[in-house]
Amino acid sequence: MAQPRYLIVADGDFGPMTSKTANSVIRYLPDRTVGVLDRQQAGKTVDDVLGFGGAIPVVASMREGLALGPTAVLVGIAPQGGQLPAEWRVWLAEALDHGCDLWSGLHTFLGDDPLLAERARARGRRILDLRRPPTDLPIASGLAKTVEPLVVLTVGTDCNVGKMTAQLQLIRRLNQQGLRTRFVATGQTGIMIEGWGIAVDAVVADFIAGAAERLVLEGSEDADIVLVEGQGSINHPGYSAVTLGLLHGSCPDALILCHQSSRKYIGDYREAAWLRIPPLKEYIGLYETIGSAVHPTRVVGISLNTYDLSDAEARRECDRAERETGLPATDPVRFDPEPLVSAVADARTRYLETRSSSLESV
Amino acid sequence: MAQPRYLIVADGDFGPMTSKTANSVIRYLPDRTVGVLDRQQAGKTVDDVLGFGGAIPVVASMREGLALGPTAVLVGIAPQGGQLPAEWRVWLAEALDHGCDLWSGLHTFLGDDPLLAERARARGRRILDLRRPPTDLPIASGLAKTVEPLVVLTVGTDCNVGKMTAQLQLIRRLNQQGLRTRFVATGQTGIMIEGWGIAVDAVVADFIAGAAERLVLEGSEDADIVLVEGQGSINHPGYSAVTLGLLHGSCPDALILCHQSSRKYIGDYREAAWLRIPPLKEYIGLYETIGSAVHPTRVVGISLNTYDLSDAEARRECDRAERETGLPATDPVRFDPEPLVSAVADARTRYLETRSSSLESV
User: Fold this and answer.
1) Among A127, A255, A342, B218, which has the highest number of CB atoms less than 10 A from its own CB?
2) A151 in helix, strand or coil?
3) Are residues A189 and A290 in the same domain?
């Protein structure tokens, strides 16, 4: 199947800090994004709005968008209140009529909408609800520890600090070093970019680790390194369960700790500001201890998100993180990702040595 | 509504080590259990089969069972393969015709079966699928830390070591001391016994902690102590996510660590025997550290399950656990639960002192 060319629906919410899914698809798949539908920003380019993404146009209607030649319409923001607005429904039906597939990461499944489901059937198009979990997931049994590649998981000090981005910034560079590297998506945005994966936050509780296990087994084929997209944070009052299920299900050999330098409180509760983000060293202890309870693992590098700092401040934060943790630290979007690339490559070298010596001792 | 009188279906699998749900209902609600349907053991009493439960009869057919006067039929074992056997379906329809409700903790929902759903509607009976999660759960936000009662969660070294039983053994004794104590059920067996609760292993991943939070808020009304039923284990490769979601969502002030003394490996993987159960002190460190990352908590006692040991061995295991941890330890089923009752009452006293001094300092 040819790779889809996306028209992204981000109506009313397209912007650098709001449309996370849309923005990530544009950042990593600019050549496969034909346009963005947002009536508020219509007439601008994506670069005008985001500061990257080049001349991709923002349009005011589905008709204009479809004229740009997409093969799929991708829902790139969550509508207010979670329900599908009536006019989006009309647009999406129009897109199906025009011959497009639909891609959605919403909690509300488009495929369960009778109008859209019927229209897709009639037109022979597909509706991909990326958050709909597979129905045959296993209970994890630690199988992921047996795979051949080095497994690297990103872990965070909070949600939305750059766990997916950190890894996407490393893939090309690792591949250039001859290390066959695969990204394993565990959230809807990653799945849109990679074309496969499981949204682990949408599976039934008993199967979180099982979903991670299955993804690692699938991602390990013909790979030297598997980069597993992390979710949430081990001390997040709402989402820590997903974080730990991923950690124990994926059995990572190495971790990259991700942090947004300016953030002081666990994010969703910033208004109440009751849960302070502890020092990076405490997170390293927590993740290594609890992760190693199932499979030995260690943090090998720090990925900082410094989007709201000056270059000089960002550099200082990287230096400070290196001093505090004794580990390489960088912002892999703003600066050269090289310190993290080397950290992963070195972890792979140590991993191979350990494996061969443990094989010899058998 | 009058409390239901149960006929328990445990056909083909009724026994001391197999029918965990049936057995717990019989242990804690013997006066509300009129009979057990199991063709293999028919003719015996429940006491003949389990060693407790008295003269409750085991019968060979739904007709005989219904003659015992149940108001509800309770599915007390999981059928092989998870699917509802054809003859169970006939029995359950017969029970609805007879005027009984259905209670089920199966992953396959009885209410989704067209025959049973239609029959229940026609007869005005209810089908309670205890594993069906509420549709309006919140993302947890740490609200459970604000409740007035002392919150106590049981945590374990593995699944199926006695986390529910430990607490059920404490309730009456705590109530006798004038401490209004409520049990909060988080699994289908506990829900059958208590009549309310949420099976947290069946909710969507993002809402595990939210389910725990809601349960603690509801359970806190008019209570001095809330005992939250724990699930899984923090180092269980398959179920640790549920364990951590419960821990962070319920914000317990105190923990009781539960362990089966003779078990050496994490249970579901005993055949492969790859994940050794670490010392109790390591578990205490893990649970206290990771739990306190959201709300300060400590382990106040050890509950041992010694069902397969002699009295002398069991006593030695309790002494050994006390020496290793410096905490009170007992098997609250075999021996006097007093050490754990005192540990919880003492935790409540310390909790009130801390609360009043922190209120004074405001």
Assistant:
1) A255
2) strand
3) yes
With contacts defined as CB-CB under 8 Å, which chain B residues touch A274?
A: 142
Is B101 within the bounds of a domain?
Answer: yes
Size of interface A-B (CB pairs under 8 A): 134
Per-residue CA distances from B110 to B14, B85, B166, B194, B286 (Å): 21, 12, 30, 20, 39
Helix H, strand E, coil C: the string for B83-129 is CCCHHHHHHHHHHHHCCCEEEECCCCCHHHCHHHHHHHHHHCCCEEE
Residues near B152 by Cβ (< 8 Å), separated by ≥ 6?
B167, B225, B226, B227, B228, B252, B253, B254, B255, B256, B300, B344, B347
Rounded distance, CA B71 to CA B100, Å?
5
Q: What span, in angstroms and rounded, lies between the C-alpha atoms of A337 and A73?
A: 32
Residue B270's closest chain A neighbor by CA?
A141
H helices within B224-310, ranges in order?
A: 240-250, 280-292
Amino acid, single-letter form, for residue A96: L
Asked if B286 lies within 8 A of A290 by C-beta distance, the reply is yes
CA distances from A270 to A16, A158, A264, A267, B347 (A): 20, 11, 8, 5, 31
* Whether residues A239 and A177 fall in one domain: yes
| Chain B CB contacts of A210 below 8 Å | 238
Alpha carbon distance B148, B142 (integer Å): 14
Give the total number of structural domains in chain B. Answer: 2
What are the pLDDT digits (tens) for B118-149?
999 999 999 999 999 998 999 999 999 999 99
Query: In the numeric block, which tokens belong to residue A240?
Result: 């820590």
Q: For chain A, how many residues are written?
A: 362
- Same domain for A165 and A244, yes or no, is yes
**Which class for A281: exposed (0-12), middle (13-18), buried (19 or more C-beta within 10 A)?**
middle
Residue at which a domain ends, from A71, A106, A129: A129
Using the 3D structure, point to which of A129, A153, A175 is the last residue of a domain: A129
Q: Which domain holds residue A258?
A: 143-360
DSSP sequence for A252-293? -SEEEEEEETT--B-GGGTTTT-SBPPPHHHHHHHHHHHHHT
Closest CA to B244 of A247, A133, A263: A247
Tens digits of residue pLDDT in A305-346: 999 999 999 999 999 999 999 999 999 999 999 999 999 999
Residue at A48: amino acid letter: D
d(CA A315, CA A300): 19
Could you tell me if residue A135 is inside a domain? no
Tokens of residue B67, six digits: 């003659």
In chain B, DSSP finds a helix count (H) and a strand count (E) of 12, 12
pLDDT value, residue B362: 47
Exposure b/e, A153-187, CB count within 10 A at least 16 = b: bbbbbbbbbbbbbbbbbbbebbeeeebebbbbbbb
Q: What is the mean pLDDT of chain B?
A: 93
Tell me: do A329 and A274 sit in the same domain: yes
Q: What is the DSSP letter of A206?
A: G
CATH of the domain at B71: 3.40.50.720
> Is residue A316 located within the same domain as residue A356?
yes
Q: What is the pLDDT of residue B18?
A: 86
Confidence of residue B360 (pLDDT cuts 50, 70, 90): low
* Residue A160, token pair as written in the block: 């939305």
Q: Are residues B103 and B211 in the same domain?
A: no
Cβ-in-10-Å burial (0-12, 13-18, 19+) of A51 comes to exposed
Distance CA B177, CA A158 (A): 43
Interface test with B, best of A204, A243, A266, A275 (most B CBs within 10 A): A204
**Searching chain B, which residue's CA lies closest to the CA of residue A289?**
B286
Q: In chain B, which residues have their Cβ closer than 8 Å to the Cβ of A201?
A: 204-206
Asked whether residue A303 is assigned to any structural domain, the reply reads yes
Per-residue pLDDT band at A7 (split at 50, 70, 90):
very high
Do A117 and A163 belong together in one domain? no
Give the Cα separation of B211 and B246 in Å (integer).
Answer: 8
